[in-house]
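Good morning N.,

You mentioned wanting to compare the apo and holo forms, so I went ahead and generated the holo version with oxa(dethia)-CoA. This is what I fed in:
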Amino acid sequence: MNVQPVGILGTGKYVPERILTNHDLEQMVETNDEWIVTRTGMKERRIAAPEQASSDLAYEASLIALRNAGIAAEDLDLIVVATITPDMSFPSTACVLQHKLGARKAAAFDLSAACSGFIYGLANVSNFIALGTYKYALVIGAECLSRITDYTDRNTCILFGDGAGAVVLGPVAEGRGFRSFELGADGSGGELLKIEGGGSRHPSSPSSIEQKRHYIYMAGAEVFKFAVRIMGGAAEEALRKAGMGKERIDLLVPHQANIRIIQSALNRLDLPEEKCMINLHKYGNVSAASIPIALAEAAEEGRLKEGDCVVLVGFGGGLTWGASVLIW
Ligand code: UT7
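and this is what came out, ligand included:
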């Protein structure tokens, strides 16, 4: 069977205008700029306007990605949105977006793998294109984490922001595109990072609101340990599957959860910081949107050249992880 090489034809990002700084957070909880910068590397994050939902951020990022790819919305066969903050339980944010874009022939669905969702999305969608089922697809990470963040909890509220990143996937020339995917999950760690409320086990109710079950709960130190172990390991495994050594990496685009987690991955991969895309100081952790926003920003800054070896790697709730090697 002939397998069509699949790659990224265009990228786009959108972040809301409103900026929440560390100094703003000092007014809200018992914290300080120095603690946040040294423990996380973060300085600012973006916050969606009250009238904006995840599909609105996804729409803006998608328009840019489509324009950069030179593909019309009507030509899309598939739209996948990775998000933990859908506009609503259903219909999916992907269906809302399909309508907004006028992508009439596209199938559409959401994907739930928390911060690893974008890489899970790439892995799924690239298979459809590789086998010839579909030709053009949008994969988006879009989040309004400010809507599920408890701004009285200093353990979490300093970390999260809002935004969206989108890529158009399609056929590429031999020698380019995705070379490998490494996906994983460990459901035994599900309790470490979660939102319990609003699902079938703890439906929304006055008591679920009172118990703050609709906000992100995170056991930070445990997630940190998992992240340090998994980031470098997943990237190494994706490189092994691609038949490449770590010296081949031109740009690492990691999930933007914490500068110390990224630095541990760089140490393990023997990679200098110049070969890593870091923007968490501007946007914080945007869950599924972190990696596509960073990728779009790398493209905007001219940091991606044809033939470059790019490694994407992320981890998150589930617990889940994902990594991919691609030739730009
Ligand atoms: O994409 C989702 C995945 N999530 C992550 O990757 C997050 C992973 N975890 C982390 O990034 C880190 O664990 C945090 C940044 C969340 C926390 O950093 P830490 O170095 O693990 O700090 P800690 O939780 O061990 O807390 C150290 C101290 C504590 O005080 P005591 O008990 O030592 O007196 C905390 O109460 O820092 C205190 N603390 C704060 N102080 C000022 C916790 N949050 C804050 C804060 N400002 N915002």
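The domain at 6-175 is CATH 3.40.47.10 (Peroxisomal Thiolase; Chain A, domain 1).

Happy to go through it together on a call whenever suits you.

Best,
F.
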